[in-house]
Amino acid sequence: MKKSTLVMLILIVPFTLFLCGSNWEYRDKNADIVTDVIENQYLVKFKTSALLGKSQARSFFSQKLKKIGFNDGIIHEFKLLKNVVQVQLNPDLLKIFKTSFEGQIEYMEPVHLIFVPVPGEIIGEVEEPARNLSLFKDLPPVSSKQWGLEDEDDVDVDILTGWAVTTGDAGVVVAVIDSGVDYEHYALANHIWVNSDEIADNNLDDDNNGFIDDTMGWDFYYSDNIPNDGTSHGTHVAGIIAANGNFTTGVAPGVTIMPLRFIGSTGTGSTADAARAIEYAIENGADIINCSWGGGSYSNTLKAALEQAEDAGLLVVTSAGNDGLNLNNTTAYPASYDFDNLISVASITQGGSKMDSSNYGSTVVHIAAPGNGIYSTKINDTWGYLSGTSMACPFVSGIAALIKSKTPQFSCVEIKNIMMDNAKYIFGVEGKVIADGIVNAGNALTSSSDCDIDADNDGTPDCYDQCPLDGNKTLPGECGCGGLEEDTDEDGTPDCNDLCPLDFDKTEPGVNGCGNAEPDEGDFNLDQLSIGSSANKEWYQYYYRCSVFIVAADQQKELINNVSYEFVD
Fold first, then answer.
1. For the chain, what is the largest distance between any 2 Cα atoms, rounded to a whole number of angstroms?
2. CB within 8 Å of 519: residues ≥ 6 apart
């Protein structure tokens, strides 16, 4: 048996929205919640016994209010979050409401505010076109300003190695839940999600998703179909993920951005609108949700929305926050929520140190990514630098999108694990994030670990599923098609062996491998191999795997490659 010494390094970004700072108040895990709220607004979940279904929430609530002499106070009824409504109640009505619905409410919480620092004056810069730093002429250019992608000190995500595998597929959709996106920015315009089931400007909800003319996302702050950006924060985030222009290139320049706005031009949003945006991303086909924002308060409703995202198989990437706190001891939500599909991200400097402002936590924050002085798109066809865990978060979302593009059958948890298992070790974050390093596109996309993953749970590693006969019996290290004995082309070898790099037409039916043949003189191609001795022969048995390497016939135990293995005779 042999083992590869390749180590995959990938960092994942936290789920909090911060640019250069945050005015959220944090709390000790055992302390009372202290935060800003929207006056007189509440999120209420009725007990299941109180309502038969979500469609009855409005009529049920309205009838109850009329009985106590008040008009309908519902602001919004959630779709996926059953029996959850957003209501407006003044202090007098609140007392009557609680009395009238006593015993029928599962939880009732204030609508909390979420703040995003608003960037300063946006100044268009005349920049030199990005230089193609790649040895591969067909890959996108990388600006010398984009140290997080490629940097001579190697504190980067090794994007060129990743791009040699894929630059992203347009079918992979990343929902940017933020301050909006400048969807007309020339570096982003060709990468904006289009709702093909909606007819533009006919004032109808053609796809019956509850939103009229939502051809490219939604603005939950103003409740309209124009999710443009009023602060540059969301545009900067979107550019880090998928920009493709003369001056900036995103981590995954081939993927698609779904703009979902819930932060206003003053840098303020709410937990209610954030939950609504998550619902929209789930219902309208997003694969990944980028949340470069957060705060200190626990919200049942936001947690419930994230649970829906987990159930739907979406990966959620969050920023850790910019208060320099250890989240092992302090909470900052949503980064502190514990979901298998959520990955939180800390930020590092170009020198490899954790940013002083970045939150961290060896048991809470998953991974780190470049976050200091990050160059990306801003509104009105401009570019500039921003810093914080908000900028680190989209590095992880972008690399996750590349992995999804390469292997669309992978689940969100598998994508998360690939990034975590293949993080690039960085001393500056050792012991500060779970992965002890930063996310790494090169390691994540070239790792052989996908050969050991069975994303479709059919009993065979995914790399074997392309075989003509999939008997669902293949074990790791065996030749691809389940060891079936059929030889439909009558060439003397079972069909499962016909795809092996060595086909000497000597395989006995039912014997896995590449013909069980004695290698001839000279060099020959193998796949990532397992070598074992036969009980009655002195030659080696070679098994078909995914990546082809070369071994000299007279030096069977020496791999001519930069990967080392252990062989067992």
1. 94
2. 502, 539, 540, 542, 553, 556
Tens of pLDDT, residues 499-521: 443 333 333 333 333 333 333 33
Q: Rounded to whole angstroms, how far apart are CA atoms 277 and 180?
A: 11
CA separation for the pair 461, 463 (Å, rounded): 6
Whether the upstream peptide bond of residue 334 has omega within 30° of 0, thus cis, is yes
Beta-carbon contacts of 32 under 8 Å, excluding residues fewer than 6 positions away, are none
Say if residue 180's pLDDT is above 80.
yes
Query: What are 69's two structure tokens?
Result: 């002499």
| DSSP-derived secondary structure letter, 353 | B
In 68-179, alpha helices (H): 91-100, 159-163
Residue that the structure tokens 């016994």 belong to: 49
Q: Which residue has the tokens 């590449």?
A: 514
Burial degree of 120 (CB within 10 A; 0-12, 13-18, 19+): exposed
What whole-number distance in Å separates Cα of residue 145 and Cα of residue 201? 40
pLDDT digits 0-9 by tens, 224-264: 999 999 899 999 999 999 999 877 899 999 999 999 999 99
Please tell me the least confidently modeled range out of 232-236, 402-406, 457-461: 457-461
Alpha-carbon distance of 89 to 216, in angstroms, equals 33
**HEC sequence for 244-290:** ECCCCECCCCCCEEEEEECCCCCCEEEHHHHHHHHHHHHHCCCCEEE
Query: The tokens of 55 are what?
Result: 């469609």
Distance of alpha carbon 109 from alpha carbon 136, whole angstroms: 54
H-run or E-run covering 418: helix 412-421
Question: Backbone dihedral region of 492: left (phi > 0), alpha (psi from -120 to 50 degrees) or beta?
Answer: left
Rounded CA gap, 35 and 25, in Å? 6
Can you state the angle between helices 412-421 and 389-406, rounded to 10 degrees? 110
Strands 256-261 and 218-219: parallel
Which residues does the annotation mark as catalytic?
178, 233, 390
Is pLDDT above 80 for 270? Answer: yes
Q: Does residue 532 carry a pLDDT above 80? A: no
| Nearest CA-CA partner of 173 in 193, 143, 158 | 193
Parallel/antiparallel/unpaired status of strands 382-386 and 374-378: antiparallel
Q: What is the DSSP letter of 245?
A: S
Positive or negative torsion for Cα 161, 165, 169, 174:
negative
Count, residues in the chain: 569
| Residue whose tokens read 């070598």 | 531
**Among 147, 155, 157, which residue's Cα sits nearest to residue 428?**
155
Contact 122, 50 (CB under 8 A): no
**The residue to which tokens 């992608």 are assigned:** 149
pLDDT tens-digit profile of 2-42?
Answer: 323 222 222 223 223 333 333 222 223 333 334 588 999 99
Nearest to 294 by CA among 362, 373, 392: 392
Q: Enumerate residues 6+ apart whose C-beta is below 8 A from 63.
A: none
Q: Please list the alpha-helical segments (H only) found in 243-351.
A: 271-283, 300-312
Question: Quick count: other Cβ atoms within 10 Å of Cβ 566?
Answer: 11
1 within 8 A of 452, measured Cβ to Cβ: no
